[in-house]
């Protein structure tokens, strides 16, 4: 099937459409229903009657946006009417929810009169926290937005006007820097004079461009003062009428610094690009076909053409989804009365700043593993970058508060953490650990320091103040890679071949001399294997923690720290633990990486160490020793081990947490089973520490929970070592390294 057939099948599959309404509170019992509706619902009604602002406290108003359209100017389709526009408006709702966790009612109004549209939306003001106008043709859209902004007390935003303006404005801020030009000196030419073009031109002036340097062309040609005087253009176009002779688009583009296309495809030639000034900036944003193709524009000049389009298959896509979800998120969360110019400028500047940061591996993978690094081919972030939410929304909220548009004051640091938590429970849990790490950073040695991911992780760790990273490896290679990656930092490097590290070889020999290692072999191991070097570095107190394993099999990466650092004095066995974060639950899974066939003593030890780890995440542990048996329902050697481990822990005064077993996995995590069938259990609530009976079960279990249960995984985290050591999985992403660095720092703080 082609794209059209696929899209039709996508939309008609049961249930038809793309959105639904779901409840956010329990509705399982009679009491639930009496709270949700009659008679309990009267209480919040009376509170709101006494104070209308309580609607934000007792209803979903504060997270509800109305997407309103009459279908008179649907992108690429034109005036198709209200009913036919509904799939587009539902799609807008999907984007609001997917990117900013905002709920939407799509409202399609069969009305062409802009004044009647205004009256209809005004009557719906009590329903919504904000209104997103969509696909209303010009010039009526200007009237509708302007009147609504004046006459209702919630944010109103016409995305067709302002979305492209803001996103291309962010691109312009970065393009100007790369081209070595100044905003106020730019000669800018617009192709197109509709709502989006006029709003974009206005916005560029807000960013610092000069209105007198903007030349706007419509289908007739340059919008000149003579045309304005003759009544040839409407009032909205007149504000950009130029005092120049009449001419066409080709005339306007001669010597220009910036071309902004918001018109139709294929109307710009290579000769027109060649006529522009040095290092031209070309934003050809007509969809689906740009005013000039990407390859054509690039090939037209020997100097660098900085090019952006509206397409996802070329660099620098100007995509409105980078703006409206996050603008409304910030506006709703401070109960803003409007979305003003200061808030729009804040959005553009936040996006421009984000494009200069290192790009997460997940984003790179989503775009085919093509390098994404600030420069001519990367001047705006990608829509799937999760950081956009907690970079842009706080900037919007801050601008709203500073400009007087906000009705609620919020703490911006706390707000950023709340936004990050919206992206998943794992982020919320890691924020707890990272904040602890930042309170008292420690030195973390990074083995395999020449690896690009390790270098990028070191940059982020240092920039965020999580730790003091030390990269182990060849100093010149690491420094060159950091430069090539455009990372603006001077990493601390420990080069085993260049520094005075003879004492490391001596110490390794001392530790391993009765294991067949000679002094010469020890010196060679320290110089050639960063795992041994890093292990000795931590053992000697020159670093507080070690991360390794990025390019090694787990057992071979774990062996050096076990040989050199070993387990803690009161611990005989290390273990590997995963934190699995579900939507409303967190569990710790052990042992998933180290002990193949643990006896009851090892199981008890692993449980105690995992409980300690849980507390570092501010989680009070409740441990279950898992089996295929429930409390003696099956008795054999396999079931006796977890049963005996549970008894050891219950008899141990140092095990100051509830623990029980042996029990089946569903017994451990389902409250009805635990309390109903097995009310005698020591666990009064479902377990959050699950200790598997052997390595095979643990590894299988955590991977099934992650892949089929939709859990986010953090780890593996190594517990029981004498000094903080964590062994990464081969192929881990930069964020995984940063997260484990945070865990290692908190481990070191406990030491």
Mean pLDDT: 91
How large is the radius of gyration?
31 Å
CATH top-level class of the largest domain: Alpha Beta
What is the name of the CATH superfamily of the largest domain?
A: NAD(P)-binding Rossmann-like Domain
Total tally of structural domains: 5
Q: Proportion of β residues?
A: 5-15%
Query: What would you say the CATH architecture of the largest domain is?
Result: 3-Layer(aba) Sandwich
Straight-line distance between termini: 61 Å
Largest sheet: spatial strand order: 7-6-5-8-9-10
Q: What structural class do you assign from the helix and strand content? A: alpha/beta
Question: Uncertain spans, ≥5 residues at pLDDT below 50?
Answer: none
Task: Give your account of this protein's structure.
The structure is a single chain. The chain is an alpha/beta fold and 751 residues long. The protein folds into five domains: 16-154, Rossmann fold, CATH 3.40.50.10380; 162-318, NAD(P)-binding Rossmann-like Domain (Rossmann fold, 3-Layer(aba) Sandwich), CATH 3.40.50.720; 321-423, Rossmann fold, CATH 3.40.50; 432-565, 3-Layer(aba) Sandwich (Rossmann fold), CATH 3.40.50; 575-720, Rossmann fold (3-Layer(aba) Sandwich). Helix content is 45%, strand content 12%. It has 33 helices and 21 strands. The strands form four sheets. It has a six-stranded mixed beta sheet with strand order 7-6-5-8-9-10. Helix 9 (159-179) crosses helix 10 (195-207). The model has no long low-confidence stretch (mean pLDDT 91).
